[in-house]
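By way of example, what follows is a protein record of this kind.
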Amino acid sequence: MWARFALFLLFLVPLDPSRLDAADLFPGYPESIREQAIRVVEAAGPGKGETLEPEVRALRRAMFEHSILSVNAVPDRIFDRASREGWKGRSYDSMRAVTRVAPLSVPLWSWLAWEDVARFRLEAFLFDVKGLLGALRQYGPGLLGYAVGLVLFASASACWFAIWASLNLLLRAVPAMTLDVARLLKVLPRAEIFSSVIVLAVFAAPVACGVGIGAAAVFWIALSTAYLRRGELLIGGTAILLLAGVFLCGGFLEAIRPVTATARHGGWLGGEGYYYKGGPSSGDAEGGLLTGAEWERMARFARARAEMEGGSLQTAESLWTELIKEGGDSSGAQNNRGIVRVRIGKTEEGLSDFEAAAERTPAGGRAQWNAYQVYLQDFQLEQASRIQPVAWAGIRGLVPFDYRAEEMTHGELIASPLRVGDVWRSLFTVRKEWFLGARRSAVHNLFFRPLPGKWVISLLAVALGWSALWKLLSRKVWVSSVCRSCGAGTLVVRSREAVDICNACRAQVGKGIHGGEERELRGLDILLHRRYVRACSILFPGAGALWAGKEIQTILYGLLLSLSAGLFTVSWSAGRLTGGLIGDMQADIWRAALAAVTVLWVFGAAWGWRSFENLQLRYNTSRERL
């Protein structure tokens, strides 16, 4: 469910809305735009640069006439055609050419940057990264899609860290826990065997009962708390806090779920690449996260842009005027109203809007250029020459829009897109709906079953409190401690940090001074302990480093491993459910992420193995005492 929900928001809706209507390659756009976009797709191909370039320029001129900044479906259609006809590997030049008519297509910039790396084109790579960042910063319709993708990636990474941390901490505590259980069962014959079975049964019980992995991880961490060092408790506490974040991420996803019911029809997601088809100006989603002044303003901005793009200039002018009267940062609205007024014939009023918008940012570059164009049209050559350097420099600096002043004809006025910077801050503000939605979200059902939703946060808080309480009880309660170097067990009280290395190891007596049965038994304990830690290091990388006392380095390694695993999880899920430009990139991403996980796993196993070996060398338990 996660993968399908993310795919819908992150890819299908904001980035390639034309997939929703297979009969029309470019639904929702004016007829002239549609026809010219089809010509661009048909002209694309390997070695067809001379044929494609005039079509791209014609489409761009038509887009300027309707104040459309980007037709994001164009690169997807070209890529689909290249895949069908077998020239996908030679589509780089065609995809590069259409950046001028699809500058807000995040998949296009991502694909180009990926190809630049493969072709070792550093200069082009830097340019495409700038374009990608600019599209992410300015592409309003994709805002929720990118947020969902980020939340899913963070959630998946946090879950992997919780699993990794809880299992490593449990395996770290199992030897001492087994000794304590055996101590309680000392009246039974072969109490060590029974205690081992009981500990393994307790470990496997949550999995056998179908408990969610989040609840199981909390149980394992709480079970291990009494036997951990302070640095290891930090790892466990970090895992619990991350699980709390995962729970709230479920509430975030549940709060924005209403958008899936209306996004196919446009609504407030309208804007570049997704044509607004009408609807209430307050937005289509009711209740939940998609309410408030920021969301309503975005919806009204999208509606005004849609009216302007569709040719309803009188309606667009009134909508822009309403937005400007509300106050706030209205530079984008003023620039767009100036375009509408110039087309209506109110040249002086439009020029006033451009001059007012030019005094503000970030629409100053667009507004300066538009004012420069009006000066030229009215033959106010002195004013035009005065602002020409600023106007030319301003539009060249608009990322990701590849504007070249010397190639643009007179009358090409540049509209302002939706601004999303302020909305990002509003989007990630913690809200009451997050907590309410988290209790019934798919995240809760998947990771925290069978706990009721209202108990999850309480459980996590109790687990954190339990860790702190055990640090106090450790001053009074006797528990078993296992030497990290040789595996010898002993009963300790008060702080266990100073006694997790036994006296024999600190004295570096090796297998023992005296010969006989005592020496053989100590040697056997050392051998079994070494095999146990090495096995843990291979199965759960980083375990050996924990036994060696490298808690801080281990938590950093665990975070890096979890981020790679989270990237693989999200990209693999999305890559299986889609094709085209997105699917091609996602396939490359999950392969790279899987390779990173493999390398990190091997490195962690070798690092843990070597760290434990050095620990035993330091305390002379890996060889005879000299």
